[in-house]
Design brief:
mainly beta; six-stranded antiparallel β-sheet; 41 strands
Length: about 650
C-alpha cells in the first residue's frame, strides 16, 4: 500500500541530505548560520530573482551575486530593497494553501516518507484545526475564514506516527453536505448564502464553522469557534459527538483561544473566555477548569463603555485575565449602503478607527488572595493598532503587568486583497511584535515598545511552563523580507530570545539575526546567513525610563523552508523532564506550493536554525489551518497491532 514519497512529490535535490542510518540525523540547512557582531548594521537585499546584496547603511559599496546596480530607488526607510519583494507568483503560491481538502484520511506515516528521525522520546498527540472546506460555487463566494472546520491529528509513539483528519460535523456542515450547496450565512461572507439576491439582512444568526481552535482537556476534545459553542469530538477517532454547552455552563459562545496555566502546586488549569458583543452593552465571561474538567472559577464582567468590538484572544497572569482591544467602531454608513444590499459582510461593517486608541483590560482572577482588593482595570495606550494574537503576559515584582502581543497597524475584514494584491504587503496592516506595560494601581499603560522592526511575525507561542509567567523565548512565524515597511507572507520559522539583564536606560536596542535556509537555490543562500539591524524602542512620555532590554540584543533565529513554502503556527512541546523553556521540540506544518502537499516538521527548540530533526512528507494537501494543541497522551492505534490497516481508504467529502 505504501510507496516512495518520490511518487507523491518531486523533492529538490538540495533540500536535505538523506539519513544513512536509523540513529543518525543528517538533515542540515544549505548553510550553517554564523553571527555578525559589528556595531554598524548590516542590511540585506534579496529578491525573488535570487539577487542578494550585503551593504552597510552608507550604501557606499554593494557585493551583488548577480550584476545589478544599486540605485537610489532601492532605498526605502534606510534599507536596500528589491523593487518587487512580493510578486504575483508568490501570491499564487500562497493562495494554494487555501485549497479545500475533500478526503478524510487514516494511515500510518511510512518511514520512507520521513527524512531524518522522529525523536523516540516524543510521545503524544498533535491536534490542529482550521477551515478545510471552502465554497467553490461560481455564484457564491465565501471568505476563507468561513471554511468548515477540519481537525487533524498526528499521534507519536516510539518513533512512529499515525495521521487522521475529519471534518467537524456541525449542524450546518451536515445540512450543506446533504444539499451539496451553501445553505447558511457566514460571518465574513456577503449577501445570501447561495449567492442569490434575496436574503434577510436583519437575521444575524450565522453558521457555526467550528474552525478556529482545538483543545484536549480531561479526556475530551473540543473544536472551538469564538462566535458559537464548542463541538465535542472523540479524541481517538475525531468523530463528532455534538455541540456542547459544557453541562449547562455556557449561556453564550466560547472563545477560540485559551491558555493552559500551571499553578504554584504544579496542577494545570484550562483558562478560557467567551464574549457577547451587542449594542447597548457587551460583556465577557471567564472560566477556569481543573484537570478533572470541573469549572472551578467563573466570572462575568461588562465591557464598560464598549458596545462593538472584536475580542479574538486573551492572556492570563497570576492574578489577572488580560484583554487587549483594538479601536473598532461600527460603520453605520457601510451597513446601510452595502450590507443591506448584500455587497459586504457583517464583519466588514466593523471598522478600524485610525484615530482611536488601544484599551487594555485587566480583570482579577476571583480565587486569588486579595482578589477583592483588585478592581478591574481599563487603561488606554497612546498607540493605535489591532491585536489578533497575544504572545504571553506576566506580572513584575512591583505589580506591573507586561503584555507581549502582535500588533497589526490596521485591520480590514475584507481580506480578499491578502491573496490578490502585492500592494497589500507595502506597509498597510503589517503585524509586528509589541510589548505593553500596565500599572494596575494607576490604571495606566506606562510603556509601549516595538520589539522587532524588520520582521513581521504572527501565530506566536511560548513554552507551556511559562504561560502567565516571565518568558525568555518566543516561537512564531515571520516573513523573509527583512524590512521596516515592506513585508510578505509567513515563510519562516523564528525563535526570538529576550535577554533578561537589566541595563541602564537607553533609547534603542539592537536585534541580532541568525538565518538559515533549506531548499533554496545555491545563489540565494550564499552570504545571506546573517542580519544585524537597529531596533528602535518607543516609550511613552509618562514613563521616565525604559526598563526592558536596555542596551541588550534580542536574538532571532530564523529557519526558512524554501521560496515556495509557507509555515503554520509552531507548537512548543516540552521534552520529558524538561529543564528549561527551550528544552523542547517544535512542531510546525509547512505547505509546499511546488507540490501542493503538506509537511510536518519537528525541530529542537534550542537550535531551530540547525534545521529540522525530522520532516514528515504527507502524501496529500492540508489547507492552511489556524490553531493547534498537544497532549502527552498517545491517541492512536497500537503500533504493533497488525489488525490496524496501514492505509484506510479515504472518505470523500462533497464540494459545495
Amino acid at each position: 500500500m505504501f510507496c516512495s514519497p518520490q511518487k507523491f512529490r518531486k523533492l529538490k535535490e538540495n533540500t536535505f541530505s538523506s539519513s544513512k542510518g536509523p540513529a543518525v540525523n543528517t538533515l542540515r540547512p544549505v548553510q550553517k548560520p554564523t553571527q555578525i557582531f559589528d556595531e554598524q548594521p548590516v542590511e540585506i537585499l534579496r529578491s525573488r530573482a535570487n539577487d542578494i546584496c550585503l551593504a552597510s547603511t552608507s550604501y557606499s559599496s554593494c557585493a551583488v551575486l548577480k550584476d545589478r546596480p544599486a540605485s537610489s530607488s532601492d532605498v526605502v526607510n534606510r534599507r536596500v530593497i528589491p523593487k518587487k519583494h512580493v510578486d504575483e507568483q508568490l501570491l499564487k503560491d500562497c493562495a494554494t494553501a487555501f485549497k479545500s481538502v475533500h478526503e478524510e484520511y487514516e494511515y500510518w506515516i511510512d518511514h520512507s516518507w520521513v527524512e531524518g528521525n522522529i525523536p523516540p522520546e516524543l510521545e503524544g498527540t498533535y491536534f490542529r484545526n482550521g477551515p478545510g472546506l471552502h465554497v467553490t460555487s461560481e455564484v457564491c463566494q465565501r471568505h476563507t475564514f468561513d471554511g468548515d472546520g477540519m481537525v487533524f491529528s498526528v499521534a507519536f509513539k516510539d518513533g512512529h506516527a499515525f495521521f487522521r483528519n475529519k471534518f467537524v460535523r456541525t449542524e450546518g456542515f451536515v445540512k450543506e453536505q446533504e444539499a451539496g450547496r451553501p445553505l447558511l450565512r457566514t460571518t465574513f461572507s456577503k449577501g445570501a448564502a447561495d449567492g442569490g439576491l434575496l436574503f434577510n439582512p436583519f437575521d444575524l444568526t450565522f453558521k457555526n464553522v467550528a474552525n478556529t481552535g482545538v483543545v484536549y482537556w480531561a479526556g475530551k476534545l473540543y473544536a472551538l469557534w469564538e462566535a458559537g459553542r464548542p463541538y465535542e469530538l472523540d479524541p481517538q477517532t475525531l468523530v463528532t459527538v455534538g455541540e456542547t454547552d459544557m453541562d449547562g455552563l455556557l449561556k453564550g459562545p466560547l472563545g477560540g483561544h485559551y491558555r493552559i496555566y500551571t499553578e504554584a502546586d504544579g496542577s494545570k488549569r484550562w483558562v478560557t473566555f467567551g464574549s457577547k458583543i451587542m449594542f447597548g452593552g457587551s460583556s465577557v465571561s471567564f472560566y477556569e477548569f481543573d484537570e478533572a474538567g470541573k469549572c472551578v472559577v467563573q466570572s462575568q464582567h461588562p465591557l464598560s463603555g464598549i458596545d462593538i468590538t472584536f475580542v479574538h484572544d486573551m492572556a492570563v497572569t497570576e492574578n489577572y485575565y488580560v484583554l487587549v482591544l483594538g479601536p473598532i467602531v461600527f460603520d453605520w454608513r457601510r451597513f446601510a449602503t452595502e450590507y443591506l444590499l448584500g455587497r459586504c459582510s457583517i464583519a466588514q461593517c466593523l471598522k478600524f478607527d485610525k484615530g482611536g486608541k488601544v484599551k487594555v483590560l485587566l480583570y482579577p482572577r476571583s480565587d486569588r488572595p486579595d482578589a477583592q482588593s483588585r478592581p478591574p482595570v481599563v487603561a488606554t495606550a497612546a498607540s493605535t493598532f489591532f491585536p489578533f494574537h497575544h504572545i504571553n503576559a506576566y506580572e513584575e515584582p512591583d505589580g506591573r503587568v507586561v503584555i507581549d502581543t502582535i500588533a497589526w497597524n490596521e485591520v480590514d475584514f475584507d481580506m480578499s486583497k491578502f491573496i490578490t494584491s502585492p500592494e497589500y504587503y507595502e506597509g498597510g496592516c503589517r503585524p509586528h511584535y509589541v510589548r505593553l506595560c500596565v500599572d494596575p494601581a494607576r490604571k495606566l499603560v506606562t510603556d509601549v515598545k516595538q520589539m522587532l522592526e524588520h520582521r513581521t511575525i504572527e501565530f506566536p507561542g511560548v513554552s507551556p511552563s511559562v504561560v502567565g509567567k516571565k518568558h525568555t523565548n518566543v516561537y512564531c512565524i515571520g516573513d523573509t523580507v527583512g524590512h521596516s515597511h515592506l513585508w510578505g507572507p509567513a515563510q519562516a520559522l523564528m525563535k526570538i530570545s529576550i535577554p533578561q539583564d537589566q541595563g541602564s536606560p537607553v533609547s534603542q536596542a539592537r536585534a541580532k539575526y541568525a538565518i538559515s535556509r533549506a531548499g533554496l537555490e545555491t545563489e540565494r543562500a550564499v552570504k545571506a546567513s546573517d542580519m544585524d539591524c537597529e531596533l528602535p524602542i518607543f516609550v511613552n512620555d509618562s514613563m521616565s525610563d525604559s526598563y526592558l532590554n536596555n542596551g541588550h540584543r534580542l536574538t532571532a533565529e530564523v529557519w526558512e523552508p524554501g521560496p515556495r513554502s509557507f509555515c503554520g503556527e509552531p507548537m512548543v512541546i516540552p521534552k520529558p523532564m524538561s529543564k528549561g523553556e527551550d528544552d523542547a521540540w517544535i512542531i510546525v506544518g509547512v505547505h509546499n506550493a511546488s507540490t501542493c502537499k503538506a509537511d510536518i516538521l519537528i525541530f529542537d527548540a534550542a537550535r531551530i536554525s540547525d534545521g529540522p530533526l525530522a520532516v514528515l512528507h504527507l502524501p496529500h494537501h492540508l489547507p492552511a489551518s489556524f490553531h493547534g494543541s498537544f497532549c502527552n497522551e498517545y491517541l492512536g492505534p497500537d503500533p504493533v497491532d497488525a489488525s490496524v490497516p496501514i492505509w484506510k481508504e479515504p472518505l470523500h467529502i462533497r464540494s459545495i
